């Protein structure tokens, strides 16, 4: 019985611990925020950025884009989902293949 109580006490102690964050560790504990490093430290205390590790974002030209960046709350809630049957997919794929295989007339 005493051994069972010890095992139970250890389980409760482990459950009480919670998530270890950088604020709950000692002064040498560094967890970080999950970000990738973009380079490496040199022997003399410098830092070299590796261009292959830098995140690059490609944004298209949105000069003449007509849509707005948010959806209004007045938009009606749509619950219907269009149901596509396998036979519909088969017929559309067959028609597309027939159109691609059809000879075209050149001018």
Question: Helices and strands in order, then pairings?
Answer:
Elements: H1 2-16, E1 39-41, E2 47-49, H2 86-101
Antiparallel strand pairs: 1-2
Describe this structure in words.
Helix content is 29%, strand content 6%. It contains two helices and two strands, in the order H-E-E-H. Strand 1 (39-41) and strand 2 form a beta hairpin. The protein is extended. The termini are far apart.
Write a brief structural summary:
This protein has a two-stranded antiparallel ribbon with strand order 1-2.
* Strand residue content: 5-15%
Record field, number of beta strands? 2
Cα Rg: 30 Å
Q: What are the secondary-structure elements, in order, as H or E?
A: HEEH
Structural class, from secondary structure content?
Answer: mainly alpha
For the largest sheet, list the strands in their spatial order: 1-2
CA-to-CA gap between the ends?
95 Å
How many helical elements?
2
Helicity level: 25-40%
What is the typical, i.e. mean, pLDDT?
A: 78
**Main sheet attributes: strand count, strand direction, barrel closure:** 2 strands, antiparallel
Please tell me what the overall shape is. extended
Low-confidence region ranges? none
Q: Top keywords for this entry?
A:
mainly alpha
